[in-house]
Each structure stands twice: as C-alpha cells, then as structure tokens.
Protein 1
Amino acid sequence: MKAIRITSYLALTVASSFALHVMAQPPKHPPHRPQHPPHPPGSPPNGVKPPQFGDPLPGLTKAQVATFLDGKDDFEDTETEAGGLGPIFNRSSCVTCHNAPVTGGAGPINVTRFGRTENGVFNPLAALGGSLQQEMEINSVLHEVVPPEANVVAHRNSTPLFGLGLIEAIPDDQILQNVRRMPFDGVLGKVSKVADAATGKNLIGRFGWKAQQATLLSFAGDAYLNEMGITSRLFPVENAPNGNAQLLAQYDTVVDPEDVVDPATGRGDIDRVADFMRFLGAPPRLPPSNSAAAGRSVFQNTGCAVCHVPLMITGPNKVNALNQQEVWLFSDLLLHDMGALGDGIAQGTADVRDMKTAPLWGLRASAPYLHDGRAATIDEAIKAHDGEAKASKDRYLKLNKQQVQQLIDFLMSI
C-alpha cells in the first residue's frame, strides 16, 4: 500500500508540474503584419531607356507590373515581433540582404551553416539547431551558438535575385541535357533532386548555393522561415533556438502560421515576394568593348563555358515575358564537385563538396564573389576554383596579362 501511495503521489506531482508548465506558457496572439494597398495597374517601362538593375521583366502587362510592385513592397518591409519576427532570425527584412546595387541584388551579409562530419557522413545536427545558425533573436536568452559538437562551419553569401523567374521557367529537360554522360576535363555535373514544398513534387532544384529549392514560392517560404522566423502554410513550424523546444514555447507568442493568407486572394506575403522575384528583370548586359568581345573567346577556350553554359531557353509559359525567352545566365544549374571550394555542408542531393554553378550574369554588381564572399575580385575567384573546375583554372593561370584582362572585361559586361 505504501508503494502504491508513493507512486500515486509521484504521478500527481508530475501531472501538477506539467499543468503548471502549460499554464506558464504565454498566450499566443494573432500576427499583426503590414498591409499595403494594392498598386493600380501601371504602364510597363516604355523601353526607350536602357534596362537597369531592378527593372521588371520587359513585356509584362500592366497588371503584372502592379503585381511586381506589390511584391516589392513586401520584400522591402521590415518585420516586427508583433508580426511574427523570430523568435530567432538572421535579419528583419529581405532587402537587408539583397540590396546591391538595388532591391533584389546581392549583399555582403553572410549566414553561418554548421554540422558534423564523421567517417565521411555529414550530420546537420538538426536537434541542436543546425544546419543554419540564426544569429539574432527577440530576447538574449534565445541566442544561438555553433554547438561544440560541430566540426564543420561554413559561411554563405547572399545571392542576387535578378532574372530568377526566367531561371524558374527553364524546362527540366534543358537542365538534364547539361549532365555530361562522358566526362570532359573531369566535368560531369548532376542535378539536384528536391522535394518541393510548394507543389508536393520531386523537382530539379535550381535556387540557392546547393540548388536546394526548385520553385520561387518554396524559395520565398524557406527564406521567410529560416532568415526571418516567419512561418507560412508551406513552412508552419518555428525553428527552436539550438533545438530548445521549451525556450521556443516560452517566447513564440504569435499564432502560426504568421504569414496569413488573404481569404479574398488566397495569397500571403510569400506569394507576393515570389511574384516580385518571378517578374524581376535579368541583369542588363553592357555593349561589349573590343577587349570584352575578345574575352568571349578566352572564356570558351579556357573551358569556363563547360559549366557556365551561356544560354538556355525558357519553355512555353502563360506569362508572355517568360514564354520561350533567351536566358543568358552563364550556368548549367548543376551541382559539381568543387573539391576544396566545397563548403563542407550536405543538403539533399548535394554532397559536402558539391556546389551549384553560380550564374555569372550581372557579375559586375555582385562582389564579393564565391559562396562565402572570400574573393574580392574575379581573378581571386577563378584562382580559388578546384575539383571539376581545376582544369579550367589551370588554363587561366597560363593566360598572358592581355588575355586575363580580356576575360575579365567580358565577365564584367554580361
């Protein structure tokens, strides 16, 4: 009987403690997010002036230009705690990381990834908050650190978003054609296979340093969650600081999902930001100088174009501005083993040394270069190439000064 009484007492104590813990959690409030009046349909740029960084795609309708501007408003909004910011995050707006030379561009801000590699197997340490560290928080007790278990730490630079709608509109079969069945210079390449949150399908990834996102809607939803701590219908679960669910429960006081869908339109902020990226124009090309024109041949002869494929074509698309358009992206959108230039982080199909071929268009406005921004110049970036790119780098190292300048002039014009 004594044992029964003790067991009953312990059970009551545990139940009471649990009840007190639940009662101690703060009530959750509905998110108060910024609302903008919709832009009226406006005239597209008249086409007289040369295209500029940040312009919408040429050929958009008036309604599509208005959609582009609506999305730009959300892209430039500063998130607040009342709207769901955090409780851990990296920055409070999209534009903070994507603003050079204009809204939607690149930026010098790096984020930190970490994990542990043991016996050749990568562990993202998800239970400890990995693989992405959020470096800001709404309260200092939530501050994330790289856990001591991590033996891999990498940094990733913010990428430019110009022309992403065109890249999204490239058919999968064109990307598959870039996979080399027989190696050339040791170059093979492989597609990134992605379970896409927006469509529920397995698709070819094409966005992010590891080609870890396949559609712009998923790309936007992932960034809202992981960079700003804003949950959505695609990503409804908050990140716990270093995996601490109790701290998350204590400080997550806004009802999830925080990106509330407008019942009249069926759209939320992630939809509007995805449309901003979809309708954001490609980087404008410069008229080539004589030196840049000569540099195109240098680009081909060194083998750079094997991975940095100059041109692909979009498929049929109901948006005329995306329908069967030339895409001068200078990328095959494949993953390549980059040897020492890999970042040590595995994501999906991408192994620790795999990186997606970075599109080179608009290169003149996206310094610093490489995934971690380690290269201040194009010359430094090329010299850091390794793995499947080593043969091309070795040819570059044999160029004379004039050829080097011609190649750089070409790259700065595309």
Protein 2
Amino acid sequence: MAATTDSIPTARIELLRFGRLMARELKPKGKLLTPFNVISGTIILLGAVLLTIRFTEGLGSITNHSQHHPWGLWIGINVMTGVALAGGAYILTFMVYILRLERYRPIIRVTVLNGFLASVFYAGALFFDLGRPWNVVNPIMGNSFGVSSVLFLVAWLFVLYMAAKLIEFSPAVAEWLGLERVRRRLHALTLGAVVLGITLATLHQSALGALFLMARTKVHPLWYSEFIPLLFFVSSIFAGLSMVIFEGSVSRKVFRHRIGRELQSSHEGILVGLARISSAAMFVYLCLLVLVFVHGQDWPYVGTRMGAWYLLEVVGFVMVPAALFLHGCRGGNVKLIRVAAVMALAGVLLNRLNVSIIAFKWYAPERFVPTWMEIEVTLALVCAQLWVFRWVVNRMPVLDFATEPASRKRVPAQRAAVALHRELEPWKVLVQ
C-alpha cells in the first residue's frame, strides 16, 4: 500500500510539471505580429470558416465537385502530391538506419518530422473530400471491410505508416520532456519502426497510383499505364529528396539558431549527396517513361495539344532538373541544386495534377475547375502544417540532435571533473 500511496503524489507532481512545461512552451517565441504570422494566420482562419461551411452544408457549397468529377484539387494536391513530397522520410531512414550512411544522420529527425506531419495533414485532408466523413473509420473498425478495394489498402497503409513515423520521432519528444528512461525504450523500437515504415511507404506510394488502374478509359493514354504504381513509387524518391533539399535550405535560414554544429558544417555536402541520388532516380524515372511510351505505341498523341503538355512535363520538369542535379553534383554548385529541386517539385505536382485532374476525362465537354475556396483551403492546410512544424522545431531537439547523444555522455563526466577540480583546489594551493 505504501508504494501505491507514494505513487499518487509522484503522479501529481509529474502532471503538474508537464502542465507547467506545456504552459511555458505554448507561449509564442519571438514576435507575434510578423508578416508570415499575419498572412498565414488569416489564411488559416478563413480556411476554418470555409471548412465549417463545407461540413454543415455539403461539398457543393464550396467546391465544384460533381458526379462526373468527384475528385478535385484536394485529392490532386493534398493527397497525391503531398504524400509524394513526404517520401524523403522513408528514403532517409533507409539510408541512415539500414545502409548506415551516417553523413545523413544530422537531418534524419527533421525529415521524419516532415514526413509524419505531411502524412497526418494530407491524409487527414481526405476528410474534406469525403461526402460522409464519419464513415472513414469503417476500414479500421472492421465495419464493411473492403479487402478487395485499393482504397481499403491505402487507408490501412496510411494509418500504420503514421504510427511508424510517430514511433521514429518519439525519442525527440521524450528528450524534450526530460524522460530519459522512456527515450531509451522508444529508441530501442526505432529500427523496427523504420523497417515497418519503409515497407509501408513503398506500398502506399505505389497504391496511390494503383487507384487509377481501374480508370483506363478515363485517363489520357499518355499518362495511363499498367506501370503507373511503379512510376508513382520511383517519382516519390526524387520528390521526397527534392523536398528535403528545399526544406533544408529554408530551415537553415529560418531556424539557424536551432541548427547544431554538425549539421551546419555538413549541410552543403548533404545537399550534394541528396542531389546525386535524386539525379539517378530521375534518370531511372525517365527511362521508365520512355519504355512505357514505346510499349504503349503513343506516337500519334505527340502532335496533339495533350501531347505538347506531356512533353512539357517530361522534358521541362524531368529531363531538365535531372541534368541540373547532375551538373550541380559534379561542380558542387549548391544554388543550381536548389533550383533543380524546385523544378523537380513542380514537375511532381504537375504530374499528379495531370493524372488526377487535367488528363482525367480529358475528352469531357465540361472541365473541372476548382473554386477559389478549394484553393484557399489547400493553402490553409499547408500553412497549418508550417505552424506545427515551426512549433516543434523551435522546442524539440530536431535540427541539433546529432550532438545530443555525445553530449549526454560527456556532460556527467564534465560535471564530475569540475566537482573534483573544486575539491582539489585547496590541496593544489598547498602543493604550490
């Protein structure tokens, strides 16, 4: 009974400590009325109002969705593109934890954080697009299991992948809370979560492409292929790495006070290495596109308007950035690498929009055009993710964690040495 009685005050003390910590950490750090905060905050508030209207009055109140065009901008950008841009998490964890490429370890946590937040926000965006969002729990709870449906597969992959990313990032949360014992236990689960996350990522990246396999007569032949799941998977590799390059370049300026020495000194080398991998992935993707094009005998479509649009995507946003990545790697030109990363991101966005919207029912007399409210909600979702990302990076050991394990080992020894030095100080005076 004594142990049980003692645990009650201890639990209360821990709850009080946690409450004080959260009250302190929830306070904004820095200026509140900055241009970014004012603009993004206004976008988020307006998005919340529009979503309230959407959930109270239906999809048709703020979107141009219809029975002929049930999928719009929220699927094309929030889900299709957003999940592809989050691919850097499973690639970096594979490189660091499986291949043991330690040079990339300084960016592993920020990449996992970005992948986790992207999965949460963009998979959560499915709620916006569902006519009956309360039925989203059906695949998870077992009600109306659609085991033969690709959407059933995607739903489970999203849920499990988010859980794996949360486990991978959880040691940083434990460090922030000062729970060393919990951190060690969570760290022991990291490798298993990494293996699970990599497996799930390869599946859900390709499963998004598999959704369009059943739309053979609806997707333009230049974008439709039996290999579209493979194309989605390969494109997620350079899309994710390009996002890591872009996000790392921005974070270095915005969060320079949070970046550790190891990441500060190795930043450019990391970008060059990522660009080299991105270039290789883009050339593989380009070869696959050529094989699919030749195999499908799509030559007659090249001279059409859709053919010109297809060439713009392939040449302008695949071939050109791949060449820029390669040239930037050889010369160590970081600026050129950043330009190539932005172009690659634009190319992936264009590809996903082509597959899901532009080249989808291209023959229909009525084309889908998103309303300004759909665009605003998408921007609000991105801004909300940026706010959460900034809050976490400013408080948790994300960008400077590489020095943490070593410092945890050195700090106790340093403290002991200082204490010993103080104790021996009088004896040193006597000896002198």
Protein 3
Amino acid sequence: MGPAGPTGPVMSREEADRALERLTAEHEAVESSLLALQDHAGRRLLEGAQLTGVTARRWAEAEAAVTRLWSVFDYYSGTLAKAQEVRERRRWPSREDLAELTQLLRGPRTLPGSVLGDGTAPPPAGDGSAGGSGGPRLTEEVTLGGLVEWMNGWYAQALDVVAAADSVWSALPARIDMLAAELRRVRSLAHSVGVRPGEHPAGDDLERTTEELTALRAEVVSDPLAFWTRAGGSSAPGGGRPDTSRYDRAARRLEDVRREIDAVLNVRQDSEQRLMRLRDVLSRADRTLAEAREARGEVLAKIAASEVPAVSGPATALQEELTAAAEYRRRSQWHRLSPLLESLEERAEDELDRARAQLAAVTAPLAVRAELRGRLDAYKAKVAQQGMAEDRMLIERYDAARRMLWSAPCDLRAAEDAVLRYQHAAQDVLMARHGGAEGGSARAEGVADS
C-alpha cells in the first residue's frame, strides 16, 4: 500500500486488481438484471396498458427509477471503463496510475446533473416505495459502490411493481374469463327454465354476478396492484400473492345459482312423477277422511256416552294448489313449479298424517269395545278350562257383560264395569277352589291379565 492520497491510502496493484474484478462482476450482474427487466413480460404489459389507481402511480415511479437506473448504469460503465484503461497502461502501474485508480474505484464523486433528472437518490433497496424523498442530494458525493447500492434499490423498486402486476394478470383475468364463460352457460340454462331477473331470485343473482365480473375484470386489467397482497415482513421484490377474494365470492354466488338451476332442471325432468305422487297422497288422505266420517256415524250409532270428535273436510286448498302446479308444468314455468312442489309434498304428507290421526281418534271407542269383548271371552275360556263353566254367578255376570257389549248403543263405561265384575268373580271362584296359595297365584295372574 502506498502513501496516502487525497482519497485516502493509495491502493496497491493487487488491491486495484481485486477492486476492478469485483466492480466488473457487479457491473455484469446489474447489466444482466437490467436486460431481464427489459424483457420481462410484466413490464411490456405495463407499458402498453391504460393504468389507473395505485398501479398507475407506482408504475410511474418505477419507470422514473428505471430511467435513473439506466443513466447511472451508463455513468458507472464509463467510470469502470476508464479505470480499466488506466490499469491496462502498464503491467506494473506507477504510483500515479495507482492514485488515479484509487480515485476512480474508491473515491467519491458528484454526479453530473444529466445523470439524475429529479436530483435524488433511491430509497433503501427492496422497500417498494417511491424514490424522490429522503435520499442524498446531487451535491453529495458517492462512490462506485454507492452507485451499485442505488441501482439495486431502483431495480428492486421496479421489479416489485413488474412482478406483482404480472402475477395478478397471470392469475386473475384468465380465471375471470373462465368463470364468465360458465356464467354464460348457466344464464342460457336459466333462461330455458324461466329463471330471469325480476322473476326469480336466482335470475337477480346472475345479473349481479355478471355485472360484478365485468367490473372486476376491468379493474384487474387497469389496476392490478389493487389486487396484490404483499407478504408479511421483509420479502424479496414481488413477494406476496394475488387477492382473489372478490373473484371467490362471485364464484361461490355462481355455484349457488347453478345448484338452484339444477334443482329447477330436476323438477322439469321428474315433475310428472311428483305430481302423480302428490295426487295419490291427497287421494289417500281424502279416502281416509271419508272412512273417518263413515266410522263416526257408525260409532255414534253403536257407542253411547262417548264423545266422538268431528271429522274435517278434504284439503281443498291443497287441491287448488295442485291444480296450479299442473298448470305451471303445462306452461313450462319450472321456476315457479319447483318451490310449489316442495311445499305441496311436505303439506300433503302432513294432511295424510292428519287424516289418519282423525280416523284413529274416531274409531277409538270401537277399539275399546273390541278389547273388552276379547277380554270377556278370554276369561270365559279360562273358567271353562277349570271346569267351572256351569257356575251360576259366573254365568249371570258373563251374560250381563255380553248383553252390554253386543247391544247398540253400547255404554262403554258400564260394559267395562261389567267385564271387571265378571273378572273378579272368576278370580274369587278360582281362589276358593284351589286354596289360598294357588288361589292367590291365580288372582295375581288374573289381575296381571286385566
């Protein structure tokens, strides 16, 4: 190392060679990056697009950064070429040569006004913000190493905009176009089954989704960076992902509409079978109600002292709606037929259940009488098995109960009391005949049977 010069210690030949090698390698790296940025598809798209919003602002800043980058790169290239020329004068450079190399390679310099148009240096490399504030002014001096840092910052700023815009344009417009094509297919199907705006909620959803996709595509094309989410923390230029939330909502809404249209299409395919099933269910309900009304008359004639519930009439409202459903099918109004069929199917089953419940309620006294008759005959058979069929008291009580049960109108309460008297008398007779233990067992058995 030689004596100190105006820029510090003069470099030795080895130091000068190493500095030249390092700065040449950095020059080649910057040049390669600049050429790659120049050929980047995202940059070409940005240059040819009608940009708006945040993308227009950031691309204007990035273009200015690239302009400064090329200008500074040319200045850097010229200085490095001059240093190469000095080094190539002699195999063993003189002290004056080394001093000049030290000044060129390490020394600070004030850039000419033509190099930086706005007079400012870039922001720190990779922060993605605009240049033009906070950097050193042109009056401050900078070394070749400082120029490399400046160029890296401008390059990162430009690449961040280019890569982010390219990622959004690569991800969203094609997906939006595919979704729009699917939307057109669904709209055609919807129109064929009568699902139209103003007539069906699904038709209104289709209209809104169409408008949303049209607006979304226009916004994505003109302002892609509005749909970019940067990666958290420190990240390389272009770090992040496209924001697809609006697209995803539109896709979900279209899927909901598609399912609704599929349901309407299914109605068109099986509506006749469903209408036939509905007619059958309502017919069975009407027949059940008719049977209940007939049974009510029979109960009133055969059973006394019993409250018999009234039987309602047929479901005329359901029949009218069924007629309307058939008319919807005839006119191919599937979007109206679909919800009506679903409602009718549920209410028709309810109507059949209600008719069956009324029949059961009306015929309950006849069931009670049949149960009492069966119990009376069962005890008579048990008494006969024990050889006591000729017992006068049992015969009298059996005849009394039988007259009540087989007469019309039948008093169910009195008949039940008569059956119980016969049952108890039979148990008492059995106890008396077989003794205490056996009789107690027989009585217990008789009570269990009752």
